[in-house]
Design a protein that fits this description.
heterodimer, A: about 220 residues, mainly alpha, B: about 250 residues, alpha/beta, Rossmann fold, six-stranded mixed sheet, four-stranded antiparallel sheet, 10 strands, globular
């Protein structure tokens, strides 16, 4: 399993390194969301501490969708997916590699975005900062694992970009809620985010397992 | 190949082994029937050339054989397996599209696909590229290749896993006469090493030197089934077409 997984992953990382397609669109989009929200709300008030978690999650979510919509674009363009369907290695490896690659792309964007985010919203972390290092990756994985799966599911559709948002956002709501609540608690220090972090972890395990089990079915669908 | 459609006047090949069989296969896309009751039997070491106008069902037939499409009716058996995934590693499929990444070089593309065949002895990317007449040292991105070079690289991808059944959809399209001749020579070598080739083309004259049988499809049915050049000269491949592929 691992050899093919790393082969797929190395291919995706190499292509992104050469083109920067996903990264550039995500950085601009998420940057715009952060700036626009900081204009719409007074970033100096205590209120900003409370909404910051939501803004970060929404910025990540919308930015990720711009990348996820293109997650399979190269495979579709020249029917590369047909060649991948013909090889004996299981499709689940392709799915997992694509998910890891997109997870890395989104995480890099979050790392780039974080300093600007803290500056624009005048944030300081009242809770335990290390917990953010759990919440953000878990929330990002939840989004990306579902996004890659549903992007593959909607490949055959004419309105696949619209369809992805339509399917992905409702399914992501529990993870979004957990991400926003946990981030809010960490930033304000008003509560314990442990329950929300556990919920994110459970969500990730369930949806990743289901996607891995089901991916071959949609991958080999006509 | 035996085409058991009633209209096909087919030559008998005796009791040879078969590597693939289609029994009354139909493929419907909605209400459109791309294939209608097609029955065929493929034998090793033969080259079958599918002819027919656009929309006749040639590409659909190849995709059904490749396991990329499931027949709506009928049964497909390839290498004794009725489940496509069981035979996949032994089939090489080349479509109209190059099925390669524009953002990688030819070597990178081939290395990527070669590593997806665990446990199967594959050609090295350099060997595959040399077989199709391309320079392995060429370090250009695949997206910058000419159409003819793309076609050859696509064939190199198919040859990588040393498949026993080659399914080639329009392999001579976008090729100049010399490149087409080289490809025919390469395929002749393949055929001589007892591998089976099924190819579609609109350019009958290109495929004629290696064709065992010409099968003409019309509206999803086998309209005619004719022996090709090599059935007129059994066991022979024109000397000018080169040596067998190792």
């Amino acid at each position: 399993m691992t050899r093919a997984l790393f082969t797929h992953l190395a291919k995706d990382l190499r292509i992104e390194w050469r083109t920067l397609d996903a990264m550039i669109s995500m950085i601009f989009f998420s940057g715009l969301v952060v700036v626009l929200f900081s204009i719409a709300f007074d970033p100096r008030g205590a209120f900003s501490q409370q909404i910051a978690g939501g803004v970060l999650s929404v910025a990540t979510m919308f930015a990720s969708v711009t990348a996820l919509n293109q997650a399979w674009a190269r495979e579709i363009r020249h029917q590369v997916m047909d060649a991948q369907r013909m090889v004996p290695s299981p499709g689940a490896e392709l799915y997992l590699a694509k998910t890891v690659a997109n997870f890395l792309f989104v995480s890099i964007v979050q790392i780039i975005l974080a300093p600007f985010f803290f500056v624009f919203y005048n944030l300081h972390i009242a809770g335990q900062a290390w917990q953010l290092a759990l919440v953000l990756p878990l929330g990002t994985w939840a989004l990306v694992a579902n996004g890659v799966f549903f992007a593959a599911l909607s490949i055959g559709s004419r309105n696949r970009e619209f369809l992805l948002s339509l399917i992905l956002f409702p399914i992501f709501i529990p993870a979004l809620l957990a991400m926003v609540q946990a981030t809010g608690y960490i930033l304000t220090g008003d509560g314990d985010p442990a329950l929300w972090i556990k919920m994110l972890l459970g969500y990730d395990i369930i949806f990743t397992t289901a996607s891995l089990l089901l991916f071959d079915v949609i991958f080999h669908a006509e | 190949m035996n085409a058991s459609s009633p209209e096909a006047g087919r030559p008998s090949l005796g009791a040879r082994l078969e590597i693939a069989r289609l029994d009354k296969v139909s493929k419907l896309f909605g209400s459109f029937a791309a294939l209608r009751q097609v029955s065929l039997s493929l034998e090793p070491g033969r080259c079958y050339v599918l002819l027919g106008e656009n929309g006749a069902g040639k590409s659909t037939l190849l995709r059904v054989l490749a396991g990329l499409l499931r027949p709506t009716h009928g049964k497909v058996t390839v290498f004794g397996a009725t489940q496509p995934h069981e035979a996949r590693a032994r089939i090489g499929y080349m479509s109209h599209a190059p099925m390669l990444y524009d953002e990688l070089t030819a070597q990178e593309n081939l290395r990527y696909f070669a590593s997806l065949y665990p446990g199967r002895p594959c050609l090295t990317p350099a060997e595959a590229l040399r077989q199709v007449g391309l320079d392995p040292a060429l370090n250009r991105l695949f997206g910058q290749y000419s159409q003819g070079m793309r076609q050859r690289t696509s064939l190199a991808r198919v040859l990588l896993s040393v498949p026993e059944l080659l399914l080639l959809d329009e392999p001579f399209s976008n090729m100049d006469v010399e490149s087409a001749r080289q490809m025919v020579a390469l395929l002749a070598g393949f055929r001589q090493s007892d591998r089976t080739i099924v190819l579609t083309t609109h350019q009958r004259e290109h495929a004629a030197p290696i064709a065992d049988f010409f099968i003409t499809l019309h509206a999803g049915r086998v309209a005619s089934f004719d022996p090709g050049t090599l059935q007129s000269r059994p066991g022979q491949v024109p000397a000018e077409l080169g040596r067998p592929t190792p």
